[in-house]
Design goal:
The chain is an all-alpha fold. The chain has one domain. Helix content is about 80%, strand content about 0%. It is built from eleven helices and two strands; from the N terminus they run H-H-H-E-E-H-H-H-H-H-H-H-H. The chain has helices at about 1-30, 30-60, 65-75, 80-95, 105-110, 110-140, 155-165, 170-190, 190-215, 220-240, 245-255, and strands at about 75, 80. A hairpin with a 2-residue loop joins strand 1 and strand 2 (about 80). The protein starts with a helix and ends with a helix. It comes from Olleya namhaensis. This is RiboL-PSP-HEPN domain-containing protein.
Length: about 260
């Protein structure tokens, strides 16, 4: 099963790359309509990626037993939500690593340092991942411009706003955060000493991406992309028409000197 999930993950990642390529093109030419459309497609794909990423994680060699995998995937023979799958993978990993029999007593069973690390991961799943799932669910049901509450009886201003402000910068950072969380859970499940040894450096990367998520300006990124496209457009106009490919390269370099 692990190989199959790796194949699926590879295909989804290829799809993400293709959509990002198109999206950057529309950002560069300031095509606002297509920029919005392809951002929604990218948002959907990022959460699809996270679904396959958790499957790849739980089927990795020596990570989880068959019974543990079933517990992550199902509750009373019903499929768990995506958020629950990630949290269950974390909880099972921490219990296995530190011989805890009751997850409800985890704070008393763990040292302050290990509990802090566990809580940081758990909180990241809730705070950084859950909003993405909520947005994806609305997009998957065609709510691309106006989002509704779960019972479809009223508009959700909060989700409508979140859908409208999503962009390629924030989506790429969210993907990096999720990948970092998967790495931490993997280390915890497979090798607790590795988890403890590498936690600070691995979590520092997650924290850096989280900080960038709140600080990095999409407007600045977009303006840079547009300016870069315009500079390229001017250079292309300056090129003599009847030059060979290599002559064109030589001409461009001569203009830079």
């Amino acid at each position: 099963m692990y190989r199959e999930h790796c194949k699926n993950l590879s295909e989804v990642e290829n799809g993400i790359k293709r959509i990002e390529l198109e999206l950057r093109k529309y950002i560069s030419i300031n095509d606002v309509k297509n920029e919005y459309t392809f951002t929604k497609i990218l948002s959907q794909l990022i959460v699809c990626w996270s679904e396959v990423r958790i499957l790849k994680l739980i089927y990795e060699n020596n990570a989880f037993t068959e019974a543990e995998i079933n517990s992550i995937l199902l509750t009373n023979n019903r499929a768990n939500s995506l958020e629950t799958k990630w949290k269950k993978a974390l909880n099972i990993s921490i219990c296995k690593a530190y011989n805890i029999t009751d997850i409800g007593n985890i704070q008393n069973e763990l040292s302050a340092d290990i509990y802090y690390k566990y809580n940081e991961i758990f909180s990241s799943i809730t705070n950084d991942f859950l909003p993405s799932i909520q947005i994806r669910n609305r997009i998957a049901h065609g709510q691309w411009k106006v989002a509704f509450t779960s019972k479809l009886q009223s508009i959700s201003p909060d989700l409508t706003n979140k859908i409208s402000i999503e962009n390629i910068v924030s989506l790429q950072l969210k993907k990096k955060i999720l990948n970092g969380l998967a790495l931490l859970i993997h280390d915890l499940a497979v090798s607790p000493p590795t988890f403890e040894r590498d936690f600070m450096s691995n979590y520092a990367k997650i924290k850096n991406n989280k900080n960038n998520l709140h600080k990095r300006s999409y407007i600045k990124y977009k303006n840079q992309m547009i300016a870069k496209y315009q500079r390229g457009k001017i250079k292309r106009k300056e090129l003599p028409i009847k030059l060979t490919f290599f002559e064109k390269i030589k001409f461009v370099f001569s203009k830079k000197q």
